[in-house]
Write a structure and sequence with these properties.
By secondary structure, the protein is mostly helical. 55% of the residues lie in helices and 5% in strands. The longest helix is centred in the last third of the chain and has 27 residues, at 62-88.
Length: 93
């Protein structure tokens, strides 16, 4: 759920319905990636501030936001890999 261009209702992104399937989650993730990419391609200045729902607080730069997104994605992929290892017992490549 988006409050405005590029500003997400973060609390809503962490809740799923009991009837949601894995495919639903993957579809929402892919949609979020597509929306983030649409915003990203319009950002020509990596030093520019990102949009904030509360303009009275300082905004991080686009560079910081992109780096944070890469870091968070890597962290969650690592968590998913740990879960997979616990399920199937295989490790490594």
């Amino acid at each position: 759920m988006f409050l405005g261009e590029g500003v997400a209702d973060w609390e809503a992104t962490f809740h799923t319905a009991p009837t949601d399937s894995v495919a639903d989650g993957v579809a929402r993730y892919r949609d979020a990636v597509e929306r983030a990419n649409e915003v990203r391609v319009r950002c020509m200045d990596l030093g520019a501030p990102v949009p904030r729902p509360r303009p009275e607080r300082p905004a991080p730069s686009v560079r910081w936001a992109l780096t944070h997104m890469i870091e968070e994605t890597g962290r969650h992929v690592g968590h998913a890999d740990i879960l997979r290892e616990l399920i199937d017992g295989s490790t490594g490549c």
